[in-house]
């Protein structure tokens, strides 16, 4: 079918996620056609390096034939088996066991979803269940971080603290609370590591005191905040928050949907700080986007309490038709094999160290306020004035120009509305591919300086 016909059909029929519907009608769709390694090609034949790994998910890179083979073999043998009641399939069982092995500490029990939002939703539902069956039904309030993203389900979107996910959706709902993001670049406590950590710990304590510890169920956080503008907390922050949650007797849920599977270096970001959460959500890199799959890892303590206290003979009424889908699970197993035996995790660590060094070189650019990175996850915050950290006015439409120009220059990144560039290259990148991403990004930033409405704002 021709690109023009596809564009027309798209305009008339496909309602795109996280898009301005009216804006999309005007702009039209950008159709991706094929991909290999770290490169994607669109329907016009334009090849780009994917500095965002799809939607921070294609960690192993595109075009792995062994994943195709794993999916095809599973489809041939058994395309579907329910996980409901006590049914199952070999790939889902093996994947649960492998994830229990890879996740930290006693996160030994795996609940499968189709992506991150329903992994978070599963956590939220099971946390309610946990406190109800263990006789503490008042513990229902959830605390999360400003700038946090925890998916788009009805409840999860309220744990998410991004304005576009609340506006006109009647969120936040009752029982959803936020504390300030550990945002060193704009932290009122200053950018000093110890001050940022102390401010977050104090904020969590104060919030729990305000609501009453007997009413608070859990604290949710991303080890590095992704969709909120790639906020990288200081080392030690995650551990301090985990310990504080334990002291306050609230569950600690680490949302590793982006940070999991080598994105920040180790298999999970929690590992770097020896943190064992009560629950951990994951998705994206679990299958590297080759098939939809998410998972919620549950600690031994929480799992046992639910199993032993749930009403005898009554099913725990939470599940999806595709929980533990055998094809997604087979894909997941092969992707996990590629990280370890295939050397992609180790390559990602080397590439991540190189990426951090190369990106730091952009700090001298007149538009760059801050470069922040942990491994292959980075944010570049753009400002009009480096000293005051003042942003460009909205009329300059910097993010829009950035994305369009970057695309023309052959690099894909995320341009957040508040002029923060998000980057998450595939873990399979070579050093020269990392260099290409950074070079095209610098060119794009340079191009911004020639755009009249941006020039006028500087
Ligand atoms: N949690 C985090 C931290 C995420 O980044 C995302 C997706 N960007 C989600 C949850 C939701 O995952 P999904 O889009 O797969 O539902």
From TrEMBL:
One family name in Pfam for this protein: Aminotran_3
Cofactor: pyridoxal 5'-phosphate
Gene Ontology MF: a single term: pyridoxal phosphate binding
Keyword tags: Aminotransferase, Pyridoxal phosphate, Transferase
CDD domains xrefs: OAT_like
Family (UniProt): Belongs to the class-III pyridoxal-phosphate-dependent aminotransferase family.
NCBIfam families in the record: PRK05965.1
PANTHER family assigned to the protein according to its UniProt record, in alphabetical order: AMINOTRANSFERASE, AMINOTRANSFERASE CLASS-III
Name the record gives this protein: Adenosylmethionine-8-amino-7-oxononanoate aminotransferase
Organism listed in the record: Bosea lathyri
